[in-house]
């Protein structure tokens, strides 16, 4: 329907939600096919062991079992191992990664066989009966221990130290020795488990006689998976279709290509039957990628009055037992934001990637940038404490000056636009900073058991992944472009095919708003198709806060192409020259005679019946754009958290949380707020609750949602959200991206608040997550010089079973 | 995530359930299923037979019975939490039941299941221990009553015989001062440490959650209070005789210190 109404910038409700709320979504586990069989992986209870034998004889004869296959049985199924697509240095050491391990179990997720059975239950029963004999090897999880190479995971590589990458630095490096104030700190950040609400799963089927295969997979990246799985299985890309159905979140954990996807395809090819696999949560915790797992040695050079002169970070990063799709690139992705939003004279960042007997790490919401922001913002607080200044004062005086155009930063890349001070000031205003400081002083004065702390976090992130030329320079094997196709159907409806692959982000709605405004129609007239390589041919999928900045801009350009053609048809029909037409009020109108007009629905119908098109013009009204961004986008913001810490028990409650973000122009404010709320919740989880804990044998102790503490709505405070808008200069929409900002900003805001609450007792450090015990111990140590009681935190007893309380 | 194979029978009466249990030593009673079914899905529990007593609705009630309040073993936590007679005469039970898990758990889980599971981290066992509750068990030879102090024998073990079924929980009227403190990481979690305190005949009964293999009475604290100690002094005895676990929620050492803080607060609240 032609309309003059504008939709961009409005919080219209998400059009994709009705089917999800009413239970009519088509997630992977909703799908089944005639003749379908189930796949179950055999993951023996070892963390590091040489496999001596795999006896499948009993399992093979179990009811319903079609076959039990080991790596040897599948030797000819995989021409190559699972691909890693970001060899970030020339001398990086890349371990071979087969879908089933051939010799050595290197982490708890390593499988030695697959069971194929008629039902899932039968497959699970049979998997228990596969007998694996193995010789255990010592387990190494600690990064510095692993770097000593006393236990080497991949003997052919000869070392666990597989990659070292240095940014190379910017500015005068001598300042880190010569500055009036030099602060050294070491921060470690635990492993995190991404916990998409839907675990992984896939369904592979095909026509073996034609060599054609389809994989339906709970993935963020159908287009990239098509390329990667073609390499792994040898199925040509021309005969491989990947479908991402409704996908229940990813947080980066589905920005990957996994063994199970390659196995399902290989088995569908071998058996000629559809093969389905659904991951259970215990499997998800060991076999799906983890995030974080890093240690930073940090140096800040500054002056006594609070000027930050230089920031230097040397990182150790836990790669896990293999490389997954992007593993070694994740720390590097953070390597470009270690200056934060601050105007510094010197910059240094380098990292070393180390193999350990744990689940491979890879992109987890924020991917490198939360790690960076955490250490910068902790370090700035440590600096403020050292020189006795208010941390808000120190931050504000160091903010980079504003610039409306792109400007090269100390780390060498161009920041698209910046205006940090209004964002910062608004956050302090909303949290009532001075008032909170007064309340804090009063609590300290009264000696109350419950003390108040205020924590700040100012951040900058690098989004809109990514300019292909820069990706090439950084040795990433693919590009960072994206694509959109617009097909204007006769009588007013429009079909959009996007190369992005939403899994909760609301692209159906936001993309409809962009197209509606561009073509003078309503969002309801727009149908957005995605997540199927046979439907949207071209794309680079969804991750890294890239979708609107790259896919959305591609869509805007496709709109312009549609309008270029539509303008020619309009001029032809109205018998005026194209120059006599202007696009106003949702139609091409003759200048001076606005009633003489043609809308896009009119013109689409004309182009479809093609009864009277300009001579030589092809029928139908369509537009396709493939857009390669000229630069990244650089969102920024300031978050402030106010906590109350019970000094007797160590428990933290969040009293206030304020987030003021600048993600450039906004398509749908409601969706932006949802992204910030979810991101902050995930960051609060990181700061106070979540941590992957292993015992000395390398077993994951936090092996279910009972022990791995994902907070519920009851633990997440109300948030006060606001925005400033500094348009990006990278794209014409002016958008920057918002999906990771909350997760990037919030962990240091919360931890800084916790430390601030008890800093008057002498506490200067509390690790993540700031569990009651960790906080309590820090207080004991600061006030009594001992950690209070013997024995470290955590520790291990057999885990409690799943479920609610008894 | 799929349990190992098992047989299933729905019992039509307590007597039928008892005879089914007697016929198979590896049979388990299924009530609300909120502890058993997750364990079965993880294949930690592998009963050969489930005896489902979930439809024995005559075991679901809360009523005054002389100087006691009788609660049927199959009463769901939600119904315990909302029972007026408990709210008025023994409010700590109703309150604690309302703190279990989340609303879905409270609508399925039963008081009898919670007690018979013998989980020292469960909320109700310590509450019932503090109240000196009585547990009525029915077996092939008849009915007997077990005092709370004798009921919880070890981790996930109780005085119930394999072919006995818990049918009723009896609590005294206790609407003087009381306190129920559940220190937890997340709203739906088990207590890291829990304290139940109930004033009684000038003294106070204090029981602890998740401080040992069973719910425990803090007798050192109780004696100190009887001897006239103030809450802060009495609470220093809180970890005496305990053997708390170390797990992802906290070390044993931390729990020993935490329990002293929580007992002090509970004593203050119960006497306020």
Query: How far apart lie the N and C ends of chain A?
Result: 57 Å
Contiguous uncertain segments of 5+ residues of chain A: 790-806
Helix content of chain B: 25-40%
Strand content of chain B: 25-35%
- Judged by helices, strands and strand pairing, the structural class of chain A is alpha+beta
- Most strands sheet of chain A: 7 strands, mixed
The N- and C-terminal alpha carbons of chain B lie at a distance of 48 Å
Helices and strands of chain B: which structural class?
Answer: alpha+beta
Number of helices of chain B: 12
Helix content of chain A: 25-40%
Shape of chain A: globular
What does the largest sheet of chain B look like? Answer: 5 strands, antiparallel
Rounded to the nearest angstrom, the radius of gyration of chain A is 28 Å
Q: State the helix count of chain A.
A: 20
Quote the average pLDDT of chain B: 96
Strand residue percentage of chain A: 15-25%
Largest interface comes to: A-B, 46 and 49 residues
Oligomer kind: heterodimer
- The general outline of chain B is globular
Going across the biggest sheet of chain B, name each strand in turn: 4-5-10-6-7
């Amino acid at each position: 329907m032609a309309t003059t109404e504008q939709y961009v910038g409005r919080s219209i409700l998400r059009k994709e939600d009705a089917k999800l709320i009413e239970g009519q979504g088509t997630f992977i586990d909703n799908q089944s096919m005639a003749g379908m069989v189930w796949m179950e992986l055999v993951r023996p209870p070892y963390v590091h062991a040489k496999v001596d034998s795999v006896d499948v004889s009993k399992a093979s004869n179990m009811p319903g079992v079609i076959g039990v296959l080991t790596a040897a049985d599948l030797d000819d199924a995989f021409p190559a191992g699972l691909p890693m697509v970001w060899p970030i240095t020339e001398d990086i050491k890349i371990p071979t990664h087969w879908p089933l391990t051939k010799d050595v179990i290197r982490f708890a997720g390593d499988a030695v066989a697959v069971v194929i059975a008629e039902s899932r239950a039968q497959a699970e029963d049979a998997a228990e009966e596969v007998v694996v004999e193995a010789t255990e090897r010592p387990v190494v999880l600690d990064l510095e221990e692993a770097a000593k190479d006393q236990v080497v995971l991949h003997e052919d590589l000869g070392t666990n130290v597989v990659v070292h990458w240095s940014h190379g630095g910017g500015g005068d490096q001598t300042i880190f020795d010569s500055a009036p104030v030099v602060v050294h700190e070491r921060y470690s950040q635990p492993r995190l488990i991404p916990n998409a609400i839907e675990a992984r799963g896939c369904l592979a089927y095909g026509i073996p006689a034609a060599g054609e295969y389809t994989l339906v997979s709970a993935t963020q990246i159908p287009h990239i998976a098509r390329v990667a799985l073609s390499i792994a299985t040898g199925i040509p890309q021309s005969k491989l279709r990947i479908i991402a159905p409704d996908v229940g979140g990813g947080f980066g954990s589905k920005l990957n290509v996994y063994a199970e996807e390659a196995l399902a395809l290989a088995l569908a090819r071998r058996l000629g039957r559809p093969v389905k696999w659904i991951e259970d949560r215990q499997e998800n915790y060991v076999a799906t990628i983890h995030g974080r797992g890093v240690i930073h040695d940090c140096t800040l050079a500054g002056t006594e009055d609070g000027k930050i002169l230089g920031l230097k970070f040397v990182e150790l990063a836990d790669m896990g037992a293999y490389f997954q799709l992007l593993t070694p690139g994740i720390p590097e992705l953070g390597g470009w934001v270690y200056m934060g939003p601050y105007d510094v004279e010197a910059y240094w960042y380098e990292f070393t990637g180390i193999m350990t007997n744990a689940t491979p790490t890879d992109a987890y919401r924020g991917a490198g940038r939360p790690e960076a922001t955490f250490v910068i913002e902790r370090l700035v607080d440590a600096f403020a404490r050292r020189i006795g200044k208010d941390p808000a004062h120190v931050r504000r005086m160091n903010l980079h000056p504003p610039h409306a155009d792109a400007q090269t930063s100390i780390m060498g890349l161009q920041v698209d636009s910046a205006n940090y001070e209004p964002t910062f000031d608004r956050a302090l205003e909303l949290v009532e900073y001075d008032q909170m400081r007064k309340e804090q002083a009063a609590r300290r004065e009264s000696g109350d058991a419950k003390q108040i702390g205020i924590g700040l976090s100012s951040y900058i992130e690098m989004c809109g992944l990514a300019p292909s030329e820069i990706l090439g320079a950084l040795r990433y094997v693919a590009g960072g472009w994206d694509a959109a196709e617009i097909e204007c159907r006769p009588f007013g409806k429009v079909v959009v095919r996007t190369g992005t692959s939403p899994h909760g982000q609301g692209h159906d709605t936001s993309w409809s708003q962009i197209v509606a405004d561009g073509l003078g129609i309503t969002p309801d007239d727009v149908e957005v198709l995605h997540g199927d390589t046979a439907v949207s041919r071209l794309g680079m999928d969804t991750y890294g806060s890239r979708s609107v900045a790259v896919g959305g801009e591609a869509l805007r350009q496709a709109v312009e192409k549609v309008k270029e053609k539509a303008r020619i048809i309009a001029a032809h029909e109205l018998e005026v020259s194209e120059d006599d037409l202007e696009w106003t009020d949702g139609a091409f109108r003759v200048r001076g005679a606005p009633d003489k007009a043609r809308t896009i629905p009119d013109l689409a119908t004309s182009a479809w019946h093609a009864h009277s098109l300009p001579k030589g013009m092809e029928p139908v009204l369509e537009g396709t754009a493939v857009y390669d961004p000229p630069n990244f986008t650089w969102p920024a913001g300031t978050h402030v958290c106010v906590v109350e810490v019970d000094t007797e028990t160590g428990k933290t409650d969040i009293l206030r949380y304020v987030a003021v973000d600048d993600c450039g122009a906004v398509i749908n404010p409601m969706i932006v707020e949802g992204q910030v709320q979810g991101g902050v919740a995930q960051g609060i989880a990181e700061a106070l609750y979540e941590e992957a804990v292993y015992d000395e044998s390398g077993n994951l102790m936090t092996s279910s949602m009972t022990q791995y503490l994902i907070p519920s709505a009851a633990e997440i405070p109300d948030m006060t959200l606001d925005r400033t808008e500094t348009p990006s200069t990278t794209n014409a929409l002016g958008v920057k991206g918002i999906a990771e900002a909350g997760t990037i900003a919030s962990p240091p805001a919360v931890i800084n608040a916790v430390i601030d609450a008890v800093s008057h007792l002498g506490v200067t450090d509390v690790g993540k997550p700031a569990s009651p015990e960790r906080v309590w111990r820090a207080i004991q140590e600061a006030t009594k010089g001992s950690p209070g009681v013997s024995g470290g935190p955590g520790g291990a007893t057999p885990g409690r079973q799943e479920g609610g309380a008894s | 995530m799929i349990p190992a194979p098992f047989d299933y029978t729905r019992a039509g009466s307590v007597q039928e359930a008892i005879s089914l249990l007697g016929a198979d030593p590896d049979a388990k009673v299924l009530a609300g299923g909120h502890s058993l079914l997750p364990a079965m899905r993880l294949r930690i529990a592998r009963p050969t037979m489930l005896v489902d007593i979930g439809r024995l609705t005559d075991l679901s009630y809360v009523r005054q019975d002389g100087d006691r309040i009788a609660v049927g073993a199959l009463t769901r936590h939600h119904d315990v939490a909302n029972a007026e007679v408990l709210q008025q005469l023994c409010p700590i039970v109703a309150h604690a039941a309302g703190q279990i898990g989340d609303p879905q758990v409270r609508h399925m889980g039963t008081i009898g299941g919670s007690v018979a599971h013998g989980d020292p981290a469960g909320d109700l066992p310590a509450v019932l221990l503090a109240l000196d509750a009585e547990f009525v068990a029915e077996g092939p030879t008849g009915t007997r009553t077990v005092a709370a102090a004798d009921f919880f024998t070890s981790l996930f073990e109780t005085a119930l015989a394999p072919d006995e079924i818990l049918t009723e929980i009896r609590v005294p009227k206790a609407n003087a001062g009381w306190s129920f403190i559940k220190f937890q990481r997340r709203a739906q979690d088990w207590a890291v440490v829990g304290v139940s305190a109930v004033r009684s005949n000038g003294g106070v009964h204090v029981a602890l959650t998740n401080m040992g293999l069973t719910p425990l009475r803090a007798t050192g604290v109780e004696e100190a209070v009887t001897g006239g100690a103030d809450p802060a002094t009495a609470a220093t005895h809180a970890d005496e005789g305990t053997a708390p676990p170390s797990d992802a929620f906290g070390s044993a050492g931390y729990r020993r210190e935490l329990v002293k803080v929580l007992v002090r607060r509970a004593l203050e609240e119960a006497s306020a």
